[in-house]
Amino acid sequence: MSTDAVNLDTLVFRVPHAIRNTELVSERVVILNAWIREVGRASVRRVSSDFDYHALRQSLKEDFDIPPEKVLVAGPDKYQIFDQHSFWIFLARIQAEGHGVSGHTPKLGNIVDLLVGESDGLYIPDEEVIPGPEPSGRIGPEPTIGQGDRPPPPPSSPSIIGSDPPLPGVDTSTPLPPPRRPGGSGVPGGSGVPGGSGVPGGSGVPGGSGVPGPSRGPRMPSPTGKGKGKAVENDISSDIYGVTEDEHDSEVEDDPEVEGVEDPHDPEDDEIEDEHEPDVDGVDETWVDDGNAITDRMKIEFGAMSDSTWESVCRFFNCSTEVENLKVPGLNMRLRAYQMYPVWFMLTQVTRNLNSAIIGDDVGLGKSGMTIATTVLHHLIHVAMAEVRSEWNSNGVAVGNLKHLPRRGQKKGDVCPSQATSRFQFICPCVRDGDAYAIAVNTASHPCIIVAPADLISGWAQEVAKWVDNSSTSPAREMHFTAYHHTFRNRLEGRVTYHTQTDIRGTTATVTWDERNGSYGLIPRTRSNGMLQSRRVIIVGTRATEKLRMLYNLPHRTASGTVRTVNKLAASFYFLDEVHRYKGSEIKPTGAFITLQNISDSSNMHTTAVGLSASMVGAGPINWRPFVAHVFRFISADTINIPQLTDMKDLAHWETTWGYLVQRLDATESKVKETVTTRFGELKTFLDGFVPRVMLCRTKNDQFRGKRIAENPPQDLIEIQTNMPPGRIQESHRVLARLVRSWVDKQFQNSRRQWQENGGEQPVLADVRSRVLNLVVTGGNLNESYGVIYRSSCFPVIAQLFREHKIAYKDLLADYIEKISKPVTAALYSGIPKAGEAASATRPNLGTINTRVRDALRKTKFWGIRRELRDGSPKLAELIRWIDHMISLKDHPYDPSSGFPDPGQPPEDGSNVRNMLIFVQSQASAYLLFMLLFLKYHNQVELVYIHSGIPIAERHALFQHMQAPCAKGDRNKILISNFMMGGVGHNLQRANYAMITEVPASLTVQRQAGGRIDRIGQVGNPIVVQMVDRNNLAERVRYQRCRNRDMLAQEGYRAARVNLDSFV
User: What is the Cα–Cα distance from 825 to 926, expressed in whole angstroms?
Assistant: First the structure.
């Protein structure tokens, strides 16, 4: 075994290739660079994360028949590779110290033997397979999220973390073919629609000049096959294209009621799946928003709108340009002016030759409401268009009785004769140079689909109840919302019901399959029981989209020669909520985007994909990739007309450029700075053309039509320094920081050696230190010393207790925390009726509950050190100060001399009871805070503790409980959660205090957490507090990542660095 560092560009894998059922074993070699990711091609020196594990596994399956679930055994050390993270660790060990290299030849270079860890007709070594050791030093980032606290699986039960079980009816013996770019002449967007293709003209780019007229829309080619193909119904392979690590929700759907569909899951398995989520102690790398520094410095406008575009919006809504909010029949809530623009943007996107949009408005601005309004208006436009077509197709109507403009002979500026008495709040689609007509002829009257993480589906149901007017006089009374998620099977929430067999029949589209040219064509079967299918909206979990789609692959209806009709799921709009969590990758798309591809392929009308997330800007083009790919599948580059974007290779180039700039904005070497300047200018040119066409991302402080979007000025975040005390605690942190410095500086020495051997950029110690520490923040696994520091942000005494061997590192990890949390919350929530249990059932009283909780707490390792934890946490002391103040407000009015900020008006329920949210980074901190706050406040405060061991449905009930009105004399409620489970997507504005006790990894996470209370519906003043321990190394690194974005947009990047020496 070599002990020298290895250049990964010279690495070759030698793979035994067995012939099944024989003794013959042959060998082949494959070069590591065959699996390099696009983002790594620009690097002078490769790091472990530059290589794509999933591409390697796909290649091994295709070339060597090695299933992706098999554990790989690498090198003489028998290191186990079972997922992306272990693959990167193995490469880092090779790069740093040469561990794992089997040999070297002049012809091949450095060779690593790659074997299979479990016999299945393949060669396996005689020696026992042993787990690979944790590397002593690591080079390069390790951005796998959520696996840092879990040990690798034993060899007897290998698994690919995050992979889905095979879907019913899907052949998983062959890999998914590469995405097909549909060919053929296609069908124009308006073909087959009475009235022709529309008046020439186009609405142009938002922000452009002139009043937009309707476009024919992009030509929609039908997907074609070669020869006599068959219907592409089951063209996925879930064993290769499973769920990626950035899907943090767990859900399984089953529907035994649907005829002809085999249910692959036992209902009990659904609950098990819900209960065990991936470890969420780590940081989701998709939230890291260092890239915002790039767009801030470029002054990219993500929500700019010209006067002429606003005139187009108001012409569509048939209202004055001075409107501030608009009552739209069919909606309970009035659309505010800033909300009208995104609704129009989404509806008309297809008329501008694009079938993708990204709405990245800030948390609390109403993206859910705008989405629901879009689905309602989409339906109402098709209802109105049906009335217009009926009149146009009528031959015996007297001229005096016409309600609409004639189909032909219209002049620019003509108005519908019945516009003033219309029951719809939009321009009549009989006006052929209006946007309503363009929308009607470029979209089918198919249902809309909303894809959402499982834990947010109930939140969508609440939004539907709030927004949709189903009264007897409402034009939207026939709107029908269903949810395909097992938690809705036996309940109704708002207006949302379970998606049953009847709903499947009511949303099935009939499709023709022509075997002569291998193409689909949609028969306009868009009515169910006399009503348009556009009235239907399906809400589905992110992991259940393909299962939902396959429920529609019902038996063929008819056959005529080479043309037959089949059933399909179709959608006009496909919304993806919190899409940054499951965007997938080029090699491994997630199920939600596979479904988008499949339903789009079988339609000759466009499916518009809309991403909904306030976290879409910071990570840059890598977040936008699936939406751009959707565009290029169906629309030619010359039609799209976005400068410097002609295909997906162009986007890959901009991904690489973005990553290069994020890593080198603070570079000091002159040549690098020169390259940064050049690439910065190139990227700005691309973004200036791309962003206005595809994205709307606005903040509460942004101006819209001369007024700030938020009604009330956003409250400034209150930052409080809660530094650890000097003495034994701080000295323990210094000892650990010295170990971290040694570990980090080893990376510099390795970088320097690589530079001396291969040339390129000369490493600078300060640059390497800064880069490695920042990369550690985004990784799931940490150097142990750094891991202790990382998990002691809220309780700095943990470092001392760790050095004194009173707690072990594993005691701080998510597995142990979840194990000890379950009995605690089982006791804590024993007073709450379970699903299906009568509310009148006998429940334990508060005293009994408190006793049970205390008994559960006593059984943990932390009980014996609770006093040290309490006395060694300045953050806990500060938190107690705020809680005491909040409790006092029940009986005393706010006193400005208290030194606390004004909480604003009391809750509308008249109780004067205010609530609080507490957010942390690690699950260990959440548990310890709960334990210590429970011991102090169990009779005064109702604590709601959220952890990964609570099923999603039960979590939702707890979030609803936080939103419930209070009565006089009730206890204050305090929710404790980490960022991942409670800090995203939930409406929790009944509370008006949000205490962020640990610094998150990025501004986006911080903003999302504060956005739980700072949103529409908040009646008090939202108070968001960020506590910071500047003497904690890991907290200081995260703090610098969250530093003010205005500072990042300036030149002084180096001023924001962490000086590692000051912590030792």
Answer: 13
Backbone angles phi, psi at 978, to 5 degrees: -85, 170
What is the Cα–Cα distance from 266 to 278, expressed in whole angstroms?
A: 21
Question: In the structure encoding, which two tokens stand for residue 150, read together?
Answer: 């879990």
Buried b / exposed e over 1038-1057, threshold 16 CB at 10 Å, is bbbbbeeeeebeeeebeebb
pTM passes above 0.85: no
1034, burial (CB in 10 Å: exposed 0-12, middle 13-18, buried 19+): buried
Contact 945, 992 (CB under 8 A): no
Nearest-angstrom CA–CA distance, 417 and 436: 16
Q: Report the alpha-carbon distance of residue 26 to residue 789 in Å, rounded.
A: 49
C-alpha closest to that of 821 among 926, 919, 898: 926
- The answer to whether 215 touches 198, Cβ cutoff 8 Å, is yes
* 875 φ, ψ (degrees, to nearest 5): -70, -40
Burial environment of residue 458 by CB neighbours within 10 A (0 to 12, 13 to 18, 19 or more)? buried
Distance CA 648, CA 642 (A): 13
Do 258 and 555 meet the contact criterion of CB atoms below 8 Å apart? no
CB 400 within 8 A of CB 369: no
Helix H, strand E, coil C: the string for 516-569 is: CCCEEEECCCCEECCEEHHHEEEEEECCCHHHHHHCCCCCCCEEECCEEEEEEE
- Most distant CA pair in the chain, distance: 95
Q: Which helix (H) or strand (E) holds 942?
A: strand 941-945
Q: Which residues of 16-36 are buried (b: 16+ CB within 10 A; e: fewer)?
A: bebeeeeeeeeeeebebbebb
Reading the block at residue 990, the tokens are: 């009944």
Q: Is 500 exposed, middle or buried (0-12, 13-18, 19+ CB in 10 A)?
A: middle
pLDDT in tens, 102-127: 666 554 567 777 777 643 322 223 33
- For 450, the 3-state DSSP assignment is strand
Provide DSSP, 609-625. Answer: EEEE-TTSSTTTHHHHH
Identify the CA nearest to 102 among candidates 203, 12, 166: 12
Residue 774 vs residue 898, higher pLDDT: 898
Q: Is the pLDDT of residue 557 over 60?
A: no
Among 698, 731, 804, residue whose Cα is nearest residue 338: 698
Which of the residue ranges 3-17, 460-474, 551-565, 867-881 would you say has the lowest mean pLDDT? 551-565
Instruction: Work out the pLDDT band at 238, boundaries 50, 70, 90.
Output: very low
The tokens describing 551, both together, are 């429920």
**Do 679 and 325 contact (CB within 8 A), yes or no?**
no
> What gap in Å lies between CA 508 and CA 503, rounded to an integer?
9
Residue 759 has what pLDDT?
78
What three-state secondary structure class fits 830?
coil
Residue type, 597: Q
Long-range contacts (CB closer than 8 Å, 24 or more residues apart) made by 502-506: 503/536, 503/538, 504/258, 504/551, 504/552, 506/480, 506/533, 506/536
- 495, two tokens: 């207006």
For CA atoms 125, 127, 128, 131, the dihedral sign is negative
CA distance to 27, 118, 926, per residue, from 127 (Å): 19, 12, 44
What does the CA dihedral 39, 42, 43, 47 come to, rounded to 10 degrees? 30
CA dist 455 and 188 (Å) reads: 39
Task: Reply yes or no on whether the pLDDT at 99 is more than 80.
Answer: no
* Mean pLDDT across 308-320: 96
Across 659-683, average pLDDT: 79
State CA 155 to chain mean position distance.
32
